[in-house]
Amino acid sequence: MPILARIQPVDLVATKNVFLSAIRFATSIGGPCPPFGDELKNSAQEQVEYMLAEDEDTPLVTADEEVKAEVKMGLSGIYLSFEKDLSSLLYEPDLVSETAESSIIQGLSDLEWICAILPKMDLMKDFVTSWGEISSTILRVVEDKKLDSLMWGFKKKLIELTAKVLEAVGYGNVIIPAPSRVQLLRMWLPYIRKMKPLLDSVGDEETGFPYKMDEDLCQNIEGTIVSFILALPSNDQADILADWMKAEQVRYPDLSEAFEIWCYRTKSAKRRLIEGSDRVLTLDLSN
After folding, report:
1. 0.90 cut: is pTM over it?
2. C-alpha angle 255/261/264, rounded to 5°?
3. 214: left (phi over 0), alpha (psi -120 to 50) or beta
4. In the predicted model, is pLDDT for residue 106 greater than 60?
5. Is the pLDDT of residue 133 over 70?
6. What average pLDDT score do residues 130-155 get?
7. Average pLDDT over residues 16-24
């Protein structure tokens, strides 16, 4: 009987409680837990990842509204903490202290972690929406002249995380209103366009510079942005492509494919409009 008791189906309530506890510690909702510190949070994040990937009962748990509410609360807490640390960055006496930079990079790493697990819970839209809401704050800080030659690792990781947001929207995994999509791309495209050659030039000047954008990342971003643009309304596509052609850094990202498809679609639409008008005119004359 003791052996048979061990192979009984897992109690979903117990699984749910374990998952909720892991989420609280993984997102620091439970507060600091001396003497474990960040070790407990890292362990909890690994536990959440394992349960989502390996535990057959977890999909039933993640569909629970209480669990979803807890995850959303954790996401909100991470975003608020990250935005607060980032906003206070420029007011540091020595501009970027080691402690402040470490805190900000940790916050970005936490966002990267939760961004990876949210698609498995059908909550990626919450991440994208929140990212859009704080994008103006992020760009205001990171593009400040005081940070021109600092925090290269943070800037690269920022591009990587932005690429995941653009990918989720560009490939239709997350559906948001067209104005929000346009605003998201208009905010981040200039930054990506500026940072790519800048990271390349610094990498050429500094031996062993580890923050250049590798080829795979560049190609993924380029393909994502092309798909993103082609899913926008035609007039918005035209505006973004016009801005791209006017910019100094036209080479990256290369949007010529999006431009060619937009031209083809525009010509086809114009031709169909003319043909439709001709048919209407012919019918009117025949009557």
Report:
1. no
2. 140
3. beta
4. yes
5. yes
6. 91
7. 92
3-state secondary structure the chain: CHHHHHCCCCCHHHHHHHHHHHHHHHCCCCCCCCCCCHHHHHHHHHHHHHHHHHCCCHHHHHCCHHHHHHHHHHHHHHHHHHHHHHHCHHHECCECCHHHHHHHHHHHHHHHHHHHHHHHHCCHHHHHHHHHHHHHHHHHHHCCHHHCCCCHHHHHHHHHHHHHHHHHHHCCCCCCCHHHHHHHHHHHHHHHHHHHHHHHHHHHHCCCCCCCCCHHHHHHHHHHHHHHHHCCCHHHHHHHHHHHHHCCCCCCCCCHHHHHHHHHHHHHHHHHHHHHHHHHHHHHHHC
Axis crossing angle, helix 124-142 with helix 98-117, rounded to the nearest 10: 160
The tokens describing 86, both together, are 């980032």
Question: pLDDT digit string (tens) for 34-48?
Answer: 445 678 888 999 999
Extract the runs of DSSP E, i.e. beta strands, from 85-228.
none
Domain ranges of the chain: 1-142, 151-255
Token pair of 69, please? 């509410």
Return the structure tokens found at 230. Answer: 């082609």
Q: Are 67 and 61 in contact (CB under 8 A)?
A: yes
Contact predicate 237/227, CB 8 Å: no
The tens digit of pLDDT for each residue in 168-197 reads 999 999 999 999 999 999 999 999 999 999
pLDDT at 91: 77
- Average pLDDT of every residue of the chain: 85
